[in-house]
């Protein structure tokens, strides 16, 4: 053992130097800018003074070296033995501890790395049981981030600065952020990343860009992360001037084959393609009278020999008169069973588009003969950008309450990561990145447990802080739903962006299903979208039991009431309030809740470094003002139809409808969108 | 009688036509724009159908005709006899009623007019007792409005549009507003008006302008209103090129004599001069080494033969190092006894300048041998302009609680009247004009009684409305003090205007006593202006008993605490809160109170015409936002000194100090100043 240990140490230290060189350093917590995320600070001096015994027998891969380095840096307990065993290769691992030592065992290098991060997580969030034996295996094989990053550095729906990928500097210059990004993902089990926007530039498949992609893949590989690309279905035309992109056309197929060969020549472990086809103006097989299946299968067959996959998005809707909530179903359900075995149909959690709250997308219960994956949105496109504190784990949990874990084969999450110092714009938006990773590893983890882990690693273990702030996080999604779109309301956002309220937004020569009025349908009789059998009958897409439940105004869960029904203003809710009064009370509840969050956070000042305390405090002020803005805008506008008074016991509006309707909030990718809201 | 009655009717009807022609008409209350003030609508058709018997024996003066016309128009009761009796001429009257008739008796025509308006007031605010005998005599002989109107149509500290006086059209074109203005003033007993700004343009004394003044005087005369002018002490130089304005200079005296002769030749009942001398850059006797008394007496002697008076303002302060609160006293107290008998020293209610709350100006108890008058401010220069609902009667009442009625010989009020359709900008600002008039007639009237009268005449008699809204009015001043400057804080307004908070406002090369920091003196030790014997010793200007009371931090009324003392942040208040906590609670109380006002007002919707309901509702929204702005600005700024947390049970700030400090609110005389505050 001694010999090996000795060897090990040598490797670690040499290896350490290289890593240190590229890893951001954090010293005092006094001014924490949040760049460290939830990860242990890398501290060379400490490492030198006290080095725990880490031993490993066998070939030292980069991955193993990273594991050893992480333990060297942060482990404060018994000696550790890393051991690779024979058996089916998985990302899983076993940790068994005794007084004398701890053993991490896996059949793969990355399994040992995951075990390492898990052990450190346990250490940093509590006490490591002296005689524990933990076995972890990820529930989902594919745990993927989707970056909506454009090649020009902008990020669609990104609110944390510019893209992490400096395409112009690649492949020669490698930002230290690439490794930090990989380390953060590995620490929570994410094992795949789609680098570019689903509205894909064909350029990404050019020889020039593929070299850049290769450079990133090389950095990510040791962390167990495979690279995927979003592709433009018309790439053969755009890149090589073919006259068609018809998936059944020989030249087209040939073109894709050559392209795929080239990619795998550069990136042997390339993951595959993500495709947004015939959606919101993107090209696709339907342009040539082919089905989504025919398009997806063409690519899938080419990727198969390399074990690559196709993730084919089901997010489609057309400017028809039919309920937008039904369109993905109508187009994809008939294709069930026609997709090739390495095609995954990627479906958003809800039938519309990442609204604050949606019922699950009925496709999940209607394509038993296809491989499905769910697409969550981590970036807060519809939840206050990076200004509002909204913890998303409860929202995702709500999805899994309707859709059994096994129904989906994989999870994708639209990333909220950018060039901001704290990565996500809002310090608490980091929790959504963290939670996404943890849920892809183990969807049965409770949001409380995940929040608890994240808070302890990111801020402090002090029970008073953890309990109070976890409480904020757990209530934050419901609060946002209440001050934005309670009782099943959806998509009543401002026209040019999805930040502020514009329930009145209406325009000529604009697709109906891009207008809030299309979604809330408020009139003198009531409010809500009738999707029952007397309306668009979208309820029919759900299994009978749910079709009954949702379709009947009496049994429909009130949180979905206005999603499925056009409800009279004076309709009696279960608590015996009228719908109008309940609507008013819900908005008010949302506002009061945010004020409560402010109170709790302000009390936390002694427990948090000044910088992050102030950052979060300032964001909560914006959220508090915005919540009132939402309440006033929606209630005063809907009141023009209900003609009913806002219950007098509630706080009165402080804005006039006229002011709010005349006020246009300008939004760009990077500017803080709230300047407008405050003054 | 018949003959006379017949005659009377004829006169009335002819007279009526002329009046009607010049009187704004109001029909339905559906869209009441507030232009009618508290006065009965003039309704010719009604008058024609049912004419009450009004009889009067004797010469029909214009004044008497107006009285008869008003009764014709609005009286709905028994026949009325107007009777002039011999005796000392006063503005007083007696009303005695029986089943058969009502008699109004006075020694003067205007007395009968006042009696008429009083009788109508009783009718419109309740029931006229069948067998009552009311005798009313005004407590103050001079009941004067001061207009800070400039000849260019602007109004200094005016927030209700432009000046009422269309100088360019005068004397040939006479706006109907002139008569409406006179009628409104007569109805509440106001009998004098100073037409122009105390920062007086010499032009007002030019031959050209005096003809215009004469035209107005002619319109006001029948309503018992005398005209006064503010004069520039350097007029002899500015108008006629004299080399001096020294009050002891023969030419100067001669000049004034000729000017006064000219004025009385045009306006036989001209009231006299108002003078702002050696104050804020205005010229005055001190420029020539003469005292204020010498300056005032020179003019007084010239006016005396015409029974004219001089109102000499004591509002003076210099860029010295001595406490501004002491300066008027130091300059005027020594002159006690030196003023000529027709000079009135006009003193603002407080020692600084119309702050939301001030202790009384100690001059009132220090010049026993002079004739004093108090200057109130009706326009809300320091109380939210015409955006905030602040009923001022309680503030004036507070003054009289310290200064006995008899101490002052007259009352002046800086008008809040402009060209706005509703005269005062805010419908409820009309109540301050009304209350001022009523208090000058009878200072012992309670603010409740006055609010009650005004509400019933201006809106409705419905008890639910009157009770609820009176409650708002009665609490409104205390609320404003709380959200602006509680516990004796004063003058922490924005630099360029007096609307918003800028406690941090500081500038080089600016007079110290124009800077908020001079007044609040916040530092790490505490906050407040030490005016006790250990400080500026301004307390010594008060009578011994009060000097003791105010000078001792333990006995000083807490509403004046920071006015007289620099108090440690942790000082224990009577309720055992620390000063800091009490400060926070006071600001919060102010905010919550305005929200309460909003709730009450919204409930009043059924009782108020749509237009005024919406107008007031909108203003209350502004006030509500402003209150939060004040609270956040002051607490967050003062917190940088106290370094203490805002009590966590209180609602948290929603603005950042940085935002507020970087935000410059632009104010002009006419624009709604709050655009900036909302967005």
What can you see in these coordinates?
Two copies of one chain form a homodimer. Chain A contains 21 helices and 15 strands. Chain A is of the alpha/beta class and 679 residues long. Chain A folds into three domains: 8-136, Chitobiase, domain 2 (2-Layer Sandwich); 142-458, TIM Barrel (Alpha-Beta Barrel), CATH 3.20.20; 483-529 and 566-662, Alpha-glucuronidase, C-terminal domain (Alpha-d-glucuronidase, C-terminal Domain, Alpha-Beta Complex). Chain A has an eight-stranded parallel beta barrel with strand order 6-7-8-9-10-11-12-13. A five-stranded mixed beta sheet of chain A has the order 1-2-4-3-5. In chain A, strands 14-15 form a two-stranded antiparallel ribbon. In chain A, helix 6 links the parallel strand 7 and strand 8. Chain A is globular and about 75 Å long. The N and C termini of chain A lie far apart (68 Å). The model of chain A is unreliable at 1-29 and 669-679 (pLDDT under 50). Chains A, B: Residues 46-119 form the Alpha glucuronidase N-terminal domain. Chains A, B: Pfam families: Glyco_hydro_67C, Glyco_hydro_67M, Glyco_hydro_67N. Chains A, B: It catalyses: Hydrolysis of (1->2)-alpha-D-(4-O-methyl)glucuronosyl links in the main chain of hardwood xylans. Chains A, B: Residues 424-648 form the Glycosyl hydrolase family 67 C-terminal domain. Chains A, B: Its EC number is 3.2.1.131.
């Amino acid at each position: 053992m001694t010999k090996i240990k000795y060897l090990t140490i040598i490797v670690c230290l040499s290896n350490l130097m290289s890593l240190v060189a590229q890893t951001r350093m954090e010293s005092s917590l006094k001014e924490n800018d949040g760049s460290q995320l939830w990860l242990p600070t890398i501290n060379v001096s400490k490492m030198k003074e006290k080095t725990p015994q880490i031993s490993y027998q066998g070939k030292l891969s980069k991955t193993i070296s990273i594991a050893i380095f992480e333990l060297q840096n942060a482990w404060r307990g018994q000696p550790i033995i890393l051991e690779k065993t024979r058996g089916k290769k998985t990302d899983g691992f076993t940790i068994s501890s005794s007084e004398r030592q701890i053993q991490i065992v896996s059949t793969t290098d990355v399994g040992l790395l995951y075990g390492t991060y898990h052990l450190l997580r346990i250490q940093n969030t509590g006490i490591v049981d002296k005689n524990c034996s933990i076995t972890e295996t990820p529930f989902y094989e594919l745990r993927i981030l989707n970056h909506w990053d454009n090649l020009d550095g902008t990020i669609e729906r990104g609110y944390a600065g510019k893209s992490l990928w400096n395409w112009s500097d690649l492949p020669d210059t490698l930002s230290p952020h690439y490794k930090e990004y990989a380390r953060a993902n590995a620490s929570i089990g994410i094992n795949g990343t789609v680098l570019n926007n689903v509205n894909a530039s064909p350029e990404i498949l050019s020889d020039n860009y593929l070299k850049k992609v290769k450079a990133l893949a090389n950095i990510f590989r040791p962390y167990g992360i495979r690279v995927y690309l979003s592709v433009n279905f018309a790439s053969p035309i755009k890149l090589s001037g073919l006259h068609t992109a018809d998936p059944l056309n020989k030249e087209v197929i040939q073109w894709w084959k050559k392209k795929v060969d080239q990619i795998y020549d550069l990136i042997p472990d390339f993951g595959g393609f993500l495709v947004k086809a015939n959606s919101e103006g993107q090209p696709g097989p339907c342009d040539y009278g082919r089905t989504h299946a025919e398009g997806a299968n063409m690519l899938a067959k080419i990727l198969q020999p390399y074990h690559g996959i196709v993730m084919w998005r089901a997010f489609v809707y057309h400017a028809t008169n039919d309920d937008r909530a039904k369109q993905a179903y109508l187009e994809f359900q008939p294709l069930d069973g026609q997709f090739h075995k390495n095609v995954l149909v990627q479906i958003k959690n809800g039938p519309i588009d990442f609204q604050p709250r949606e019922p699950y997308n009925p496709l999940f219960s209607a394509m038993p003969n296809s491989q499905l994956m769910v697409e969550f949105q981590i970036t807060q496109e519809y939840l206050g950008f990076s200004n509002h504190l909204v913890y998303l784990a409860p929202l995702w949990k709500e999805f899994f309450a309707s859709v059994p874990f096994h129904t989906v084969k994989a999870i994708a999450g639209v990333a909220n990561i950018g060039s901001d110092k704290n990565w996500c714009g809002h310090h608490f938006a980091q929790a959504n990145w963290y939670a996404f990773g943890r849920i892809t590893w183990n969807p049965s983890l409770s949001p409380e447990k995940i929040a608890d882990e994240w808070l302890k690693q990111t801020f402090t273990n002090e029970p008073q802080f953890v309990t109070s702030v976890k409480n904020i996080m757990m209530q934050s999604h419901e609060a946002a739903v209440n001050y934005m779109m309670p009782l099943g309301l959806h998509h009543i956002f401002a026209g040019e962006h999805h930040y502020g309220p514009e329930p009145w937004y209406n325009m000529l020569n604009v697709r109906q299903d891009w207008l809030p009025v299309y979604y809330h349908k408020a009139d003198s009789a009531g409010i809500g979208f009738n999707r029952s059998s007397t309306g668009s009958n979208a309820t029919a897409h759900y299994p009978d039991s749910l079709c009954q439940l949702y379709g009947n105004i009496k049994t429909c869960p009130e949180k979905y009431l206005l999603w499925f029904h056009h409800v009279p203003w004076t309709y009696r809710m279960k608590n015996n309030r009228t719908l109008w009064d309940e609507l008013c009370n819900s908005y008010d509840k949302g506002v009061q809740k945010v004020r409560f969050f402010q109170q709790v956070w302000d009390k936390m000042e002694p427990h948090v470094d000044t910088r992050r305390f102030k950052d979060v405090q300032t964001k909560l002020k914006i959220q508090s003002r915005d919540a009132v803005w939402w309440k006033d805008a929606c209630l005063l506008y809907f009141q023009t139809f209900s003609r009913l008074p806002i219950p007098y016991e509630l706080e009165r509006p402080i804005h006039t409808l006229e002011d709010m309707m005349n006020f246009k909030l300008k939004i760009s990718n990077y500017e803080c969108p709230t300047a407008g809201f405050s003054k």
